Amino acid sequence: MTKWVVYMLRCKDNSLYTGMTNNLENRIAMHSVGKGAKYTRNRGPFVLQYTETFQTRSQAAKREYELKQLSKKAKESLPLKEKHDYL
């Protein structure tokens, strides 16, 4: 069964981008070469700040929406992902 991931990237301008995917490694690669979301074009490199995994696309979409409604301060208070590699 495919797992869905909600993720948050910190962009080079210190902004945060939240998205969801069923292939995180591929999606981050797409962001890194400017073929991901329009928002992330020319904002790399990125730091993967946060991830959550879900069983269904519906659950992931709901959580993505919830996260996008948070203020930047609230997003920054979420627990950080352990590995902070620039992507």
Topology of this structure?
Blueprint (H helix, E strand, L loop, with lengths): L3 E7 L5 E6 L2 H9 L14 E8 L2 H13 L2 H5 L11
Antiparallel strand pairs: 1-2, 1-3
Question: Care to describe what's here?
Answer:
The chain has 87 residues and is α+β, with helices and mostly antiparallel strands. It has three helices and three strands. It has a single domain, classed as GIY-YIG endonuclease (3-Layer(aba) Sandwich). Strands 2-1-3 form a three-stranded antiparallel sheet.
Task: Tell me the series of helices and strands, N- to C-terminal.
Answer: EEHEHH
Low-confidence stretches: 82-87
Average pLDDT over all residues: 89
| Largest β sheet strand count, sense and barrel closure | 3 strands, antiparallel
Named CATH topology? GIY-YIG endonuclease
First-residue to last-residue Cα separation: 27 Å
What percentage of amino acids are in beta strands? 15-25%
Strand order of the largest sheet: 2-1-3
Q: Give the helix/strand class.
A: alpha+beta
Report the CATH C-level class. Alpha Beta
Whole-number tally of structural domains: 1
Radius of gyration: 12 Å
User: Could you estimate the helical fraction of the residues in percent?
Assistant: 25-40%
- Per CATH, the superfamily is GIY-YIG endonuclease
Give the quaternary arrangement of the chains.
single chain
Q: Work out the helix count.
A: 3
The shape is globular
